[in-house]
Amino acid sequence: MDNNVNEEKDVCEVFCIEEDKVRRLANTIPDMLDLADLFKVLADETRVKIVYLLSKEELCVCDIAALLNSTVSNVSHHLRVLRTAHLVKFRREGKQVYYTLDDEHVVHIIKEGFEHVNHIHQEK
């Protein structure tokens, strides 16, 4: 499908503001900075894979690195980013550190994302 052809069709041919809608929706947009930051964190393929794995079960850094065919250092970096974004948490057991998702909201984000992507692929 040629995107240039669609671009011509998905833009209004005239400039017309529906004042009722604009007035009704004015000042209803909440601050989206934190949400945008969350999506930026999840925009990395490695981090999404880590979140997916952790949605299945608790894992230590070494296990995640092995599953992703990566280094412990690389996985640790990504886990730090995910921890800062409050997407994952950890617990220490002796000399090992185990990671889990921070809460059920993260599971829902991943599940909804997968459903959306699968829906898009089914339409093609």
Structure description:
The model has no long low-confidence stretch (mean pLDDT 90). The chain has a 3-stranded antiparallel beta sheet. The chain has helices at 3-9, 19-25, 33-42, 45-56, 61-67, 72-84, 104-123, and strands spanning 59-60, 88-93, 96-101. The chain has 124 residues and is mainly alpha-helical. The longest helix is centred in the C-terminal third of the chain and has 20 residues, at 104-123. The protein contains 7 helices and 3 strands, in the order ααααβααββα.
Query: Percent of residues in beta strands?
Result: 5-15%
Mean pLDDT: 90
- The number of distinct β-strands equals 3
Major beta sheet summary: 3 strands, antiparallel
Terminal CA distance reads 10 Å
Regions with little confidence, pLDDT below 50 for 5+ residues: none
How many H/I helices? 7
- Round the Cα radius of gyration to an integer and report it: 20 Å
Q: Rough shape?
A: elongated
Largest sheet strand order: 1-3-2
What is the strand and helix layout of this fold?
Blueprint: H1 3-9, H2 19-25, H3 33-42, H4 45-56, E1 59-60, H5 61-67, H6 72-84, E2 88-93, E3 96-101, H7 104-123
Helix pairs in contact: 4-6, 5-6
Brief summary of the model shown:
This protein is mainly alpha-helical and 124 residues long. The chain has helices spanning 3-9, 19-25, 33-42, 45-56, 61-67, 72-84, 104-123; strands spanning 59-60, 88-93, 96-101.
Task: List descriptors.
mainly alpha, 3 strands, 124 residues, 61% helix, three-stranded antiparallel sheet, 7 helices
